[in-house]
Amino acid sequence: MAYFDLSTGGHLRAMPGNTLPFMKPDRIRPRLSELKKIEASSSQFPQLGLRELDIRFDKATNAMWCAMRPSGPPSFTPSMLRELISLRRAIQTYTQGRDNQDKLRFFIGRSDVAGIYNLGGDLDHFVAMIRQRDREGLRAYAVDCCDVAYHMTTGFDSSVLTIGLVQGDALGGGFEGAMSFNILVAERKARMGLPEILFNLFPGMGAMSFLTRKVGLAIAQRMIMSGKIYTAEELHEMGVVDILVEDGAGEDAVCKFIAGGQTRHRLHLALAQARQRVLPLSFEELRDITDIWVNTAMQLGENDLRRMERLAAAQRKRLARA
């Protein structure tokens, strides 16, 4: 048996016996596969017609699990962004006016693709917008990315604690998205990094903001300019990953964490709110940086665009194998 020990900085530690120190056995959350998917006709949640997000709700812990299952490339496509924004708005509507007993407490984001969390921005979309000189179309996409990241960081402007579970590669915008969660859980096999420098671009949808708040400006710039892909263990040592677990143990680790219930939720929500007060992140900051990203992207040359296309093709092949 393992348990989450805050004194070890987020590692899982072995413990004899069959109980956990912070919960009773009957409060252990069932495995994700045992949860019932939210029905479209449910009176508890608005009908959304989601195609690329698999939503499951655990009433026992007031936790919503959201798994990305892309129909196209394993990236933040315009269609997936639209679904994430629709879900965010539905959550905000759902949480309004509910008493404390019935409120959504935890939101967990993960991926349904083996070995891949998310590989970042939609490169094919980028190339098309740049070649068509559609600055406003590219900016609209980038602002949608900022919308998703900002509301994940602020818990949808409500009392929701957001948890990211990374069990595979999170690259570029996928890494930015993972860092937007209040708590980031990663398995050892996960790799994360910002390879945009390969085509003379920088990650413009939150990387500078999130990394600077976690590791400082100098290290954030070094990470962005190097294009290095980091292991989950390296990022845990740096303080980017909050909870590091063994391969295959990510889901159980999150289950054990949220089984702490209202007490655990209250403590970590307070810490998230305190961080926002000390180092406040505004939507305007994210939007202004992404405007710089758009201006830079629109100046890329044909060689850079072809590199994007080759990388996008490699991503599609990888998704087919997965």
Using only C-alpha atoms, the radius of gyration works out to 19 Å
* Biggest sheet strand line-up: 3-4-5-7-9-12
Give the biggest sheet.
Answer: 6 strands, mixed
What is the rounded distance between the termini? Answer: 31 Å
Q: Per CATH, which architecture? A: Alpha-Beta Complex
- Give the helices and strands as they follow along the chain: EEEEHEEHHEEHEEHHEHEHHHH
According to DSSP, the number of beta strands is: 12
- Tell me, rounded to a whole number, the average pLDDT: 86
Strand residue percentage: 15-25%
Please, how many helices?
11
By oligomeric state, this entry counts as single chain
Named CATH topology = 2-enoyl-CoA Hydratase, Chain A, domain 1
Which residue ranges are poorly predicted, with pLDDT under 50 across at least 5 consecutive positions?
A: 1-31, 38-43
CATH class descriptor: Alpha Beta
Topology record:
Elements: E1 2-4, E2 12-14, E3 53-58, E4 63-68, H1 78-95, E5 106-111, E6 116-118, H2 123-131, H3 135-153, E7 161-166, E8 169-171, H4 173-179, E9 183-187, E10 191-193, H5 207-215, H6 217-226, E11 229-231, H7 232-238, E12 243-245, H8 250-258, H9 261-278, H10 283-297, H11 302-321
Parallel strand pairs: 4-5, 5-7, 6-8, 7-9, 8-10, 9-12
Antiparallel strand pairs: 1-2, 3-4, 10-11
Helix pairs in contact: 1-3, 2-11, 3-10, 5-6
Explain what this protein looks like in three dimensions.
The protein is an alpha/beta fold and 322 residues long. It has a single domain (2-321), classed as Alpha-Beta Complex (2-enoyl-CoA Hydratase, Chain A, domain 1), CATH 3.90.226. Helix content is 44%, strand content 16%. It has 11 helices and 12 strands. The protein has helices at 78-95, 123-131, 135-153, 173-179, 207-215, 217-226, 232-238, 250-258, 261-278, 283-297, 302-321; strands spanning 2-4, 12-14, 53-58, 63-68, 106-111, 116-118, 161-166, 169-171, 183-187, 191-193, 229-231, 243-245. The strands form 3 sheets. Strands 3-4-5-7-9-12 form a 6-stranded mixed sheet, with helices on both faces. It has a 4-stranded mixed sheet with strand order 6-8-10-11. Helix 1 (78-95) links the parallel strand 4 (63-68) and strand 5 (106-111). It is globular.
